[in-house]
Amino acid sequence: MTRYVGCIDIHGGKVKQIVGGTLEKDDKENEDLVSTNFVSEHSSSYYAQIYKKHNVVRTHVIKLGSLESNDKAALEALQAWPNELQIGGGINISNAKYWIDSGAAKVIVTSWLFPEQELDWDRLKRLSALIGPERLVVDLSCRKVEHQGETSWVVAMNKWQTLTKTVLSKKLFEDLSQYCSEFLVHAADVEGLCNGIDQPLVQKLGEWSPVPVVYAGGARSITDLALVDRLSRGKVDLTYGSSLDLFGGNLVKFEECCAWNEKLDN
User: Fold this and answer.
1) Rounded-to-integer distance, Cα 76 and Cα 175, Å
2) Which domains does the chain have, with CATH numbers?
3) Which phi and psi (to 5°) does residue 195 adopt?
4) Is 167 helix (H, G, I), strand (E, B) or coil?
5) Rounded alpha-carbon distances, angstroms, from residue 4 to 99, 120, 141, 163, 222
6) Cα angle vertex 206, ends 200, 212, to 5°?
7) Which NCBIfam families match (predicted)?
8) What are phi and psi of 182, to 5 degrees?
């Protein structure tokens, strides 16, 4: 069954909800170029403690940008709920073990796997061997591409601004799953817009992935949990961002998400 999974997005050292397509690929984090839906007055640890209280497991902490303030905020979250949260953003073979040792349950890797926009299998194998596949989540966040009436989803890197040469497919998920234990997929085109999920993508993820996969992007109603459950046959989990009251939204209540999970567990 589909579960609700939490998220903590960090940008400029603060917990935020942003429109994914407006992120810049440089590290200056120019606020004028980023469309922000929500900036929290609370620390990252505040949200980690809320997720801990309600046992929202597999919650991911994403650092959007390379500022030191993002690292500090991420560490605060990990310390609030050690060995339960996942960490992503700038993860590579040089720092993955540091984040595990700092309290991350798993690390989420994306751009580092795609030098020159090509999936580097050697990098993936080395990272998986270093920390173990059970500690590794591969981020396959993507953008939709239409060509001659056919729809495909292409992995996007560098804060979802650069398209790689990797197209999502059943074989890709099967091959990658030998080296990781989970996938995270943001639908970058609808991320932060609250205009609905990418239903065809969710359905494909349910068909393609042999290991757990979390979908993010566009969720705007508590009924989206049941929708994702139906489309993916219970194989894809869902996270909410800008639509959630926890992040200033008025479309989805956090307590309803928790109630959904509790119903699954009872």
Assistant:
1) 34
2) 7-265 (3.20.20.70)
3) -105, 15
4) strand
5) 24, 31, 18, 28, 10
6) 135
7) hisA_euk
8) -165, 160
Per-residue pLDDT, averaged over 164-184, amounts to: 98
Rounded distance, CA 215 to CA 238, Å?
5
What is d(CA 223, CA 76) in angstroms, rounded to the nearest whole number?
32
Distances in Å between the alpha carbon of 12 and those of 70, 71, 79, 202, 266? 6, 10, 19, 30, 39
Query: From the CB of residue 138, how many other CB atoms can be counted at a distance below 10 Å?
Result: 27
Q: Which helix (H) or strand (E) holds 50?
A: helix 44-53
Does residue 32 carry a pLDDT above 50?
no
Distance CA 126, CA 213 (A): 22
The pLDDT value given to residue 27: 47
- Inter-residue contact 12 to 31 (CB < 8 Å): yes
Angstrom distances, CA of residue 7 to CA of 2, 64, 145 = 16, 13, 26
H-assigned helices in 112-222:
121-131, 170-176, 199-208
Measure Cα distances from 53 to 50, 60, 195 in Å: 5, 16, 29
Arithmetic mean of pLDDT over the chain: 92
Residue 183 in contact with residue 212, Cβ under 8 Å?
yes
Greatest Cα pair distance, the chain, in angstroms, is 49
The pTM score is 0.92
**More reliable by pLDDT, 8 or 266:** 8
**CB 150, CB 98: distance < 8 Å:** no
Residue 34 in tokens:
């980023």
